[in-house]
Structures are given as C-alpha cells and as structure tokens.
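In this section we walk through a basic example: taking a raw amino acid sequence and producing a predicted 3D structure, encoded as discrete structure tokens. The instruction is simple. Fold the sequence below.
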Amino acid sequence: MNTHVIDTASVNPALERLEPLWTHASESLFLGGLQQVRSDWDLHTSVLDFEWGRNYYISRFLTLRPFFGLKGFWLNQDYQLDYTGFLDPARTTFGESKVHSDQDSWGFGIRFGTHTAWYFSHHWSVYSDLALTAAWTKFDLERRDRVLIAATNTDAEVAHLDYDRYAMTPIMELGVGLRWEIWFNDDNYHALIQAGWEEQLWWNFNRLYRIDAPSAGSGSLQYQGLTMKFQFDF
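The resulting token sequence is shown next.
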C-alpha cells in the first residue's frame, strides 16, 4: 500500500505569522518571517500475515473464528518540508530551509484475534474482526536540513542526524461490515463477497525527529477506510 500527500500553506508575513514546527533555522534565518511552507509525505507499507484458525458455530445465527499467528511488515516514510521566507526585516531578500526526514521500519511479532459473524438469513450476515499484535520493531531514522540563499549562492547542509531505535510496537486491527456468501455442490465450495470499514492503530510508530521538541514523544500511525473482499474456497 502506498500513500502520498502534498500540502501548502502561505501567509503575508506583515499580517500573519507562520510557525515552523520542524525547522530550527527560522529565528536566525527568516528575520522577516516565513511566507510559505510546502510539505510532502510519502508512505510505503508492506504487511505479511500468517494465521491458523478454525470456525466454530455457536448457533445457527452466530459463528466465531479464533486465530493466532505471526505478522511481519516493512514500512518506509519520507517527510519533506520546504520553508520559504524573508531573510531581512525589510522583507527584500528570500531564502529557503529544506528538511528531509526518513523513517525505515521493519518488524515481526505474535498476532491473535477473532472473526465474528451474525447471520440474519442463510446468505447474509454482519461481520466484525479484531486482531492484536505485539511486534518487535527496528526504526532506522535519518534527517537532513539544508539552507539555500540565492543572493549569496549559498547551499549548505546545517544538520544531519542518523540513528537507530528498537521498540515493541502494539498494533490493533478492527473491522466491521456486511457479508454475502453461498455454499454449493453439496457444500464443497464456498464463495464470499463483503464490504466494510477497517481501522488500524500502530502505537508510537511515527518517530521522525523534531528539533524544536526532541523529547515530545512518538506519534501513532493510523489507517482507516472502506475495504472490499472477494473469496472462493473449497
């Protein structure tokens, strides 16, 4: 799964103040204030789940499928910021501050949970899914800051951080939706179509370094959206 988001904010420095939350060069560099900031966030996610489970028919209207297994994943985040503003209080000279943060992560851990289905007819049901994982995770973190001043032809790297972190990452997966399924050929074959809403929460997973608040702690990575599933088994 790939996600790419770009956003831009602009102000008139004479009337408004744009706060640079990710750069440390604003106070000493942009004496006339920031005029624009552009952010570019790129997320690449690869997940591989192995699970063992079994269906239990609690009644003709309710089924449970408890399972356990393993989860492995590889995630790469690239976060780039481009600050543009005035270098002098008279606001006649421009400069830029560029921030590039990269977080490469991988991990694996034990995954367990249950799939539940409530039937209100022979073919139709409402399902809900829950899965929990405790994943040992390695974070490879890097950040580079550059300052560009066209008037003096300056392009200098002012900061470079490269470090690793290891942590246990809790992951919670939730899903709910509507399902249609059919059994045929003396119940030897089974087909299923379902649509629902899925949410995932990866606690303390965003560890990109902020110079203005290096001890502020980590943020959580969240996924949510509509999902479709088509299945045929025998």
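Looking at the output, two observations stand out. The chain has one domain: 2-233. The mean pLDDT is 88. In the next section we compare this with other chains.
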